[in-house]
């Protein structure tokens, strides 16, 4: 038999496979709270503008709450024949309140209905991402505060470059995640306009009040063009874009934790709660959570690519293609939240091995730049010449199989006669980091300042 919602011009029902490809109820039931909030706002507005009676609006309001509690209580028989959450809710509303239910869809289409529902859902996810990011920032900040002066190697090309402080390294991620938060906040601000009342695409002849529904749903106002309102999913793409960049940051931190927890580095020890063993190798402590976080970017960026490709080339206004927006965004959002929570747990629980950090900080001629800088400031050499002299000293140390501080003064003077004994003061890793006091530098004094600034921000 024909569909009860739109079957007026049909005499036969859909093929079973048609129904299977068309229905979205298996996943868009996640929008139930948003759908009912949107319908409540719409019904109240219809009554306030005299389009439906107050008694019908009241019956609809109560009925919607009943349907919501049925669905949230888990005792609800969703029907694929009714395609999606919007028609499942409305059909049940009709059973609950009778004829008044048929007036709810006045001056509305599923096109603006789904647009408003999905915007509300994605808006919530921006807020959830913000809280989860703040929690991870706090975990990193605790690490930074504890280790403001723990020296460790800083790397470029994964080769030892210059000593840095643990706190400085942790704060690098706090800064990155701060920008992630601002990206979600920015996307949220732009998406916070209501498409409700755009109707199918052209607006409506009913005297609706779009400002009223926008306000009731916490939007800053209505979207200004009804075609645009039902056609675009850029708000979802912005969310996925922000999520992708955030996932890149998480993946890089995860990669560092994988490297750092290896037997070759031993920079960190993950807690038992965040490690896994091997079924054959009894000694193993694997950083599986970090590896999975490193990998999760694939799903998030995949969703970003998938929805971008769905939207590209679609003529205005609504096309059913756009139903493909939801599963991608749902999965990306779920994945991001899980990754953020796992990362916060891991970072909060991990223990830095300060001895291993310190020992590694001095390897790889990590204070060679300090030596070159000393040649400039103490002896007045041009930096390029100082660079060359230092390179020769590194080559000498390498040939001797020792580190720079292990060279004798005589050996140093064989390379440059002007070198004095006080050169050894600048070759230590603590001196090195303490000297890097430029704004944003790795010196413990700067790290403590930055921790203080972030503490104020994060509360
Ligand atoms: N389930 C649909 C979606 O997710 C709702 C909108 C359907 N609108 C329509 N005219 N078929 O996009």
Describe this structure in words.
With 459 residues, the chain is mainly alpha-helical. 61% of the residues lie in helices and 4% in strands. The strands form 2 sheets. The chain has a two-stranded antiparallel ribbon. Strands 3-4 form a two-stranded antiparallel sheet. A hairpin with a 2-residue loop joins strand 1 and strand 2 (159-165). The longest helix is centred in the N-terminal third of the chain and has 37 residues, at 110-146. It is elongated, with a radius of gyration of 31 Å. The mean pLDDT is 96. Arginine binds next to helix 6.
> How are strands sequenced across the largest beta sheet?
1-2
Low-pLDDT stretches are none
Ligands (ions, cofactors included): arginine
Mean pLDDT: 96
Cα end-to-end separation = 60 Å
User: H/E series, N to C?
Assistant: HHHHHHEEHHHHEHHEHHHHHH
Number of helices: 18
**Largest sheet features:** 2 strands, antiparallel
Helix content range: 55-70%
Radius of gyration: 31 Å
Q: Total strand count, please?
A: 4
Gross morphology is: elongated
Q: How much of the sequence is in beta strands?
A: under 5%
Task: Give the helix/strand class.
Answer: mainly alpha
């Amino acid at each position: 038999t024909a569909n009860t919602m739109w079957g007026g011009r049909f005499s036969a029902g859909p093929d079973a496979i048609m129904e299977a490809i068309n229905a979205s109820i298996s996943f868009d039931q996640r929008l139930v709270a948003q759908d009912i909030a949107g319908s409540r706002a719409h019904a109240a507005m219809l009554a306030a503008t005299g389009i439906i009676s107050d008694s019908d609006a009241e019956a609809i309001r109560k009925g919607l709450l009943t349907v919501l509690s049925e669905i949230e209580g888990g005792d609800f028989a969703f029907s694929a024949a009714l395609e999606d959450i919007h028609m499942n809710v409305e059909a049940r509303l009709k059973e609950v309140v009778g004829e008044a239910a048929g007036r709810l869809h006045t001056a509305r289409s599923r096109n603006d209905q789904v647009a408003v529902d999905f915007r509300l859902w994605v808006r919530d996810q921006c807020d959830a991402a913000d809280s989860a990011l703040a929690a991870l920032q706090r975990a990193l900040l605790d690490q930074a505060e504890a280790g403001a002066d723990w020296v460790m190697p800083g790397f470029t090309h994964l080769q030892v470059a210059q000593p840095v402080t643990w706190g400085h390294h942790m704060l690098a991620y706090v800064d990155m995640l701060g920008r992630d938060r601002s990206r979600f906040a920015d996307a949220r601000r732009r998406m916070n306009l209501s498409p409700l009342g755009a109707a199918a695409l052209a607006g409506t002849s009913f005297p609706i009040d779009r400002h009223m529904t926008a306000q009731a749903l916490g939007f800053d106002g209505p979207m200004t063009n009804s075609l645009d309102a039902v056609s675009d999913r850029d708000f979802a793409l912005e969310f996925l874009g922000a999520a992708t960049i955030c996932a890149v940051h998480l993946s890089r931190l995860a990669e560092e934790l994988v490297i750092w927890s290896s037997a070759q580095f031993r920079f960190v020890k993950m807690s038992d709660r965040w490690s896994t063993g091997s079924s054959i190798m009894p000694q193993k402590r694997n950083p599986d959570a970090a590896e999975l976080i490193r990998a999760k970017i694939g799903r998030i960026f995949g969703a970003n690519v998938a929805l971008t490709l769905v939207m590209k080339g679609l003529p205005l206004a609504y096309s059913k293609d756009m139903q493909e927006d939801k599963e991608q965004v749902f999965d990306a959002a779920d994945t991001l939240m899980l990754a953020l929570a796992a990362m916060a747990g891991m970072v909060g629980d991990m223990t830095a091995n300060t001895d291993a950090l310190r020992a590694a900080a001095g390897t790889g001629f990590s204070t060679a730049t300090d030596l070159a800088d000393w040649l400039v400031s103490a002896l007045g050499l041009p930096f390029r010449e100082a660079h060359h002299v230092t390179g020769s000293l590194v080559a000498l140390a390498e040939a001797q199989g020792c580190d720079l501080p292990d060279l004798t003064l005589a050996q140093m003077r064989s390379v440059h006669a002007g070198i004095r004994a006080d050169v050894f003061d600048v070759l230590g890793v603590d001196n090195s980091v303490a000297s890097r006091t430029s704004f944003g530098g790795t010196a413990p004094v700067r790290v403590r300042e930055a921790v203080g600034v972030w503490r104020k921000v994060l509360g």
